[in-house]
UniProtKB/TrEMBL annotation:
One of its GO terms (cellular component) is membrane. NCBIfam families: protocat_pcaD. The lineage of its organism: Bacteria, Bacillati, Actinomycetota, Actinomycetes, Pseudonocardiales. Residues 18-243 form the AB hydrolase-1 domain. One of its GO terms (molecular function) is 3-oxoadipate enol-lactonase activity. Transmembrane segments: none annotated. Pfam families: Abhydrolase_1. It comes from Amycolatopsis keratiniphila. This is 3-oxoadipate enol-lactonase. Keywords: Hydrolase. The gene is pcaD. GO terms for biological process: beta-ketoadipate pathway. Gene3D superfamilies: alpha/beta hydrolase. PANTHER family: AB HYDROLASE SUPERFAMILY PROTEIN YCLE, MONOACYLGLYCEROL LIPASE.
Length: 259
């Protein structure tokens, strides 16, 4: 685990509200969570969004990164905001980071929501190849394929400006940051650690997610004691963006029950 980096973050909502940290997908920045901010703030939560190291406005240390590095950054972020404990909501890479935290820093976690993620996402060669391609050609080279995983074809056709917004988001990620994060996923295997997670956990899957299909969510929900699984049918990988009302409602219901 390397030294934590001070990641770029945005905090909204009442200063004394229960803290909810939103941790994003590979290739995204904190803007991917925009649809969730108002519903959470309206219910009195302090919402902290951040750019994962190597993404957005956060520093870009040289890779490879490990999941422990990303988890250490999140712990440092909690310290920076004076949050002893937080509800952690993570999607994809953010969910992997959340699971790491649940295993390694259980005392810092009020509850956990895992969206469209996996405890082991092989094959490793795919991630090594993608890291190599991005280092050689930049993130613009993978942006189109990224959006094709993030959104269903129907949504992308109906809302082309939203699809373009997300394509530009991916293309704007520094190549080294994206590639080094691929290497964290390449080596990740949390399956045997899942039973150690004691936090109250909700797992949300997208019914049409090609990147982390429902079976991945079933493994997580089966491994974490008393975890609850919900499947949002008409959602691909960036389900919180494509089906914001459903995801926000499920997240809020979980947070309210946990508090």
């Amino acid at each position: 685990m390397s030294e934590p980096v001070k990641v770029h973050s945005v905090a909204e909502g009442p200063a004394d509200g229960p803290v909810v940290v939103l941790s994003g997908s590979l290739g995204s920045d904190h803007r991917m969570w925009e649809p969730q901010v108002k519903p959470l703030v309206a219910r009195g939560f302090r919402v902290i969004r951040y750019d994962t190291r190597g993404h957005g406005a956060s520093p870009v240390p040289a890779g490879p990164y490990t999941l422990a590095d990303l988890g250490g950054d999140l712990l440092a972020l909690l310290d920076e905001h004076g949050a002893e404990r937080a509800h952690v909501v993570g999607l994809s890479l953010g969910g992997m980071t959340g699971m790491w935290l649940g295993v390694n820093a259980p005392d810092r976690m009020a509850s956990l929501v895992l969206c469209c993620t996996s405890a082991k996402l092989g094959p490793p060669s795919m991630w090594a190849d993608r890291a190599k391609a991005v280092r050689e050609q930049g993130t613009a080279a993978v942006a189109e394929a990224g959006v094709a995983r993030w959104l269903t074809t129907g949504y992308a056709a109906a809302y082309p400006e939203q699809a373009e917004y997300l394509r530009e988001m991916i293309a704007g990620v520094p190549a080294e940051g994206y590639a080094a994060s691929c290497q964290a996923i390449e080596r990740m295997d949390l399956v045997d650690d899942l039973p150690k997670i004691a936090a109250r956990t909700l797992v949300i899957a997208g019914g049409r997610d090609p990147a982390t299909p429902v079976e991945h969510a079933e493994v997580i929900a089966g491994g974490i004691p008393d975890a609850r699984l919900e499947v949002v049918e008409d959602a691909a990988h960036l389900g919180s963006f494509e089906q914001p009302e459903r995801f926000s409602a499920l997240i809020l219901e979980h947070l309210e029950a946990a508090r």
